[in-house]
Design goal:
Bound molecules: zinc ion
CATH architecture of the largest domain: Alpha-Beta Barrel
Helix content: 40-55%
Mean pLDDT: 86
Shape: globular
Oligomer: single chain
Number of domains: 2
CATH topology of the largest domain: TIM Barrel
Distance between the termini: 63 Å
Number of helices: 11
CATH superfamily of the largest domain: Glycoside hydrolase/deacetylase
């Protein structure tokens, strides 16, 4: 069998230095084989990098909404700042406004800006109660109340983000809630990456009050690194569990700290090779599906909701 990838340069004694160089150069066939090998290695490497199993992606979701009541003009500035950052980076996010908070003209206007900017708007209940601490019927009435308030907004998407990510105190309560969601064309909106960002936001406000810009800047940097570390650790755990990198969903709350760090946070993800996914696409990942028993007694999963 003819072997193509073998050096064929003859080790003859050259008559002059130029010939000496040529004598030790590989033949045209060998150069072709070396090039082909390199190309093959590069192709395998590129395929591994592009493999959907290991390319990390994240969808950004924000909970609660800014509070512009009581003359709080900072809320409108922070809301606009988040939307400007997302627009600049071409990232589509999803907002889950707490109904009670959004039920003020000035706050509803801020929520509307998200929809008008092309982002999705979901349901986070009206009263923001934890399901496990509520009566199920009352809780679902509360979901309906938030629906009534928000469903006409641009970007509306019937997905429920359970407050406190609390999906019920037991399987019975969880199933009752999921069945109701199925009957009303709703999906859910679980997350893979979350941290107690509201605590950091409070500490950040305190730092701003104390007037130390240097401390506030260092705090923002550490906070971005913290979210990045959390994202990386969650990805490692999910890869071990499902043998691929899922479409991650990051939960952030609408606050001054997150508005301030968002440009750096997006940069962190980009610098570490992550891409951004539309939340509505990310929620299609099987890890976010929730099963329930339908009226015919069969086990099934929630259908994809109709979103604007
Ligand atoms: Zn919330």
């Amino acid at each position: 069998m003819k072997r193509y990838c073998q050096p064929t340069a003859k080790m003859t004694t050259p008559a002059n230095p130029a010939q000496a160089v040529m004598a030790f150069l590989p033949s045209r066939a060998f150069r072709f084989c070396a090039f082909a090998s390199l190309l093959a290695a590069f192709t395998v490497f590129a395929l591994l990098c592009a493999s959907p199993g290991y390319a990390q992606s994240v969808a950004l979701t924000f909970d609660d909404g800014f509070d512009a009541t009581n003359g709080n003009t900072q809320a409108a500035r922070d809301n606009a700042s988040v939307l400007a950052t997302l627009k600049k980076q071409g990232v589509r996010a999803m907002l889950f406004p707490a109904g009670q908070l959004a039920d003020h003209d000035e706050n509803l206007e801020l929520v509307r800006h998200w929809g008008e900017a092309g982002h999705a708007i979901g349901n986070h209940t009206y009263s923001h109660e934890a399901l496990s601490k509520s009566d199920t019927t009352r809780y679902l009435d509360d979901v309906r109340r938030a629906h009534e308030l928000l469903h006409a907004l641009p970007g509306w998407c019937p997905r429920l983000r359970f407050p406190y990510l609390d999906e019920g105190k037991d399987q019975t309560q969880h199933s009752q809630a999921i069945q109701w969601l199925a009957q009303h064309g709703y999906g859910v909106a679980p997350v893979t990456i979350a941290l107690s960002d509201w605590e950091y936001a409070q500490r950040y406000e305190d730092l701003l009050q104390s007037g130390s810009d240097q401390d506030a800047s260092a705090f923002r940097q550490r906070y971005v690194e913290l979210i990045g570390t959390q994202a990386h650790e969650q990805d490692v755990q999910w890869q071990a569990q499902v043998h691929r990198s899922p479409a991650h969903v990051l939960l952030l709350h609408t606050n001054r700290l997150n508005a301030a760090v968002l440009p750096d946070l997006l940069q962190w993800f980009t610098r570490h090779g992550w891409s951004f996914t539309d939340p509505l696409t990310a929620f299609g990942d099987p890890i976010y599906q929730r099963g329930y028993t339908n009226a015919e007694g069969s086990s099934t999963t929630l259908p994809q909701p109709a979103c604007r």
